[in-house]
Amino acid sequence: MPPKYSAGVSNSVRLVAIQDTPLSVDDVLKSLDDEASGGLVVFVGRVRDHDHGKGVTGLSYSAHPSALDRLHEVCARVAEEYDVTGVAAVHRVGDLAIGDLAVVVATTAGHRGSSFEASRALIDTLKAEVPIWKHQIFTDGTEEWVGAP
């Protein structure tokens, strides 16, 4: 099934999506396949079974209508600020279970150092600037919204 939302891509920004279906690391890798890249760094964020010392039973991600545009802007900025040949970022929305992939980001570059730096900046900026909110349900019956305004 295609992404629920996707944005246009450029030469360096290869894949940007927010989707309600399971994420594929292979799709991200395929989007960044080129012969000029000696370094490829991938970060995969998964749903863990705990947070703040409490057990987590599951969670749900919600995205603001502007989230895809903001994600594309973040990817374009990383592509511009770092010496990379490719940038990709996909984020899941909807109900997720423990172990599900929530986000996959990756960058390619001629050398590993640039790709490591760019991938770190990509995930950190995505978390700080893209309006995607996490609703966690804890084993003790409490819940929490993370990243909500």
UniProtKB/TrEMBL annotation:
InterPro entries in the record: MoaE_sf, Mopterin_biosynth_MoaE
Enzyme class: transferase
Catalytic reaction(s) noted: 2 [molybdopterin-synthase sulfur-carrier protein]-C-terminal-Gly-aminoethanethioate + cyclic pyranopterin phosphate + H2O = molybdopterin + 2 [molybdopterin-synthase sulfur-carrier protein]-C-terminal Gly-Gly + 2 H(+)
One Gene Ontology biological process: Mo-molybdopterin cofactor biosynthetic process
Keywords tagged on the record: Molybdenum cofactor biosynthesis, Transferase
GO MF: molybdopterin synthase activity
EC number of the protein: 2.8.1.12
Source superkingdom: Bacteria
Pathway: Cofactor biosynthesis; molybdopterin biosynthesis
Coiled-coil ranges (or none): none
Function: Converts molybdopterin precursor Z into molybdopterin. This requires the incorporation of two sulfur atoms into precursor Z to generate a dithiolene group. The sulfur is provided by MoaD.
Subunit and partners: Heterotetramer of 2 MoaD subunits and 2 MoaE subunits. Also stable as homodimer. The enzyme changes between these two forms during catalysis.
Record-given protein name: Molybdopterin synthase catalytic subunit 1
Taxonomic source organism: Nocardioides immobilis
